[in-house]
């Protein structure tokens, strides 16, 4: 007999259910407090409460969470460094811990308008890597040619190895400000999601559960 395990981490509680694969019946359901900042502890506590005889036969794990939604609503996303390449508005606010404007960008035809200022980018990343959880990159007309965004991403990965979100990866719209904000908000949420998913993976491996994860 095989079972499915569902885990949902909300802002207040982390819930877990075990469902029998043959008929979809829920055979156990438990609840524990969601723990901050160590989400893994709440996952461990709720799985400890489940019937271990069912848990050992789990072959499918499904996870969901509202942690990212809550972070946006409560403005508690992780700190992000934002790199704005080319002609971005300088009189508008960006939802980043810190941001920098650098030379570069393309024109409406996707041709390079100005060379990318790689040296300034390297200095910025070196100065911010001790506190940044992720970076966001937006380049002028990056939807027409993402070359500069991708080059910045490579530079950041080489120095830090942490997540980088590029504007062209999320939207093909031409609004440069909106695209930069979207990339920045997404970058704030990636560390939160990684922590939750990695916490679940580590816990089920520790328990010897060999299963697929959705």
UniProtKB/TrEMBL annotation:
Any GO molecular function: 5-oxoprolinase (ATP-hydrolyzing) activity
Signal peptide feature range: none
PANTHER family listed in its UniProt record: 5-OXOPROLINASE, 5-OXOPROLINASE RELATED
GO CC terms of this entry: cytosol
Superkingdom of this protein's organism: Archaea
Biological process, per Gene Ontology: glutathione metabolic process
Annotated source species: Methanosalsum natronophilum
Residue stretches spanning the membrane: none
Pfam families linked to this entry: Hydant_A_N (PF05378)
Ranges of residues in domain Hydantoinase/oxoprolinase N-terminal: 5-158
InterPro entries: ATPase_NBD (IPR043129), Hydant_A_N (IPR008040), Oxoprolinase-like (IPR045079)
Name of the molecule in the record: Hydantoinase/oxoprolinase family protein
The organism's taxonomic lineage, starting at the top: Archaea, Methanobacteriati, Methanobacteriota, Stenosarchaea group, Methanomicrobia
């Amino acid at each position: 007999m095989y079972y499915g395990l569902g885990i949902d981490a909300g802002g207040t509680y982390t819930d877990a259910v075990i469902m029998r694969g043959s008929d979809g019946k829920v055979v156990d359901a438990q609840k524990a407090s969601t723990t901050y900042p160590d989400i893994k502890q709440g996952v461990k506590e709720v799985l400890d409460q489940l019937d271990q005889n069912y848990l050992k036969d789990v072959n499918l794990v499904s996870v969901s969470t509202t942690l990212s939604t809550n972070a946006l609503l409560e403005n508690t996303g992780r700190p992000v460094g934002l790199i704005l390449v080319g002609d971005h508005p300088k009189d508008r606010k960006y939802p980043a811990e810190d941001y920098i404007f650098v030379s570069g960008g393309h024109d409406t035809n996707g041709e390079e308008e100005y060379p990318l200022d790689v040296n300034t980018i390297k200095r910025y990343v070196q100065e911010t890597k001790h506190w940044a959880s992720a970076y966001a990159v937006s380049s002028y007309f990056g939807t027409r040619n993402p070359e500069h965004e991708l080059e910045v991403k490579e530079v950041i990965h080489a120095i830090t190895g942490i997540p980088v979100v590029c504007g062209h990866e999320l939207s093909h719209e031409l609004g440069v400000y909106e695209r930069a904000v979207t990339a920045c908000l997404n970058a704030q949420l990636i560390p939160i999601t990684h922590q939750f998913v990695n916490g679940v993976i580590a816990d089920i491996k520790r328990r010897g559960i060999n299963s697929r994860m959705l």
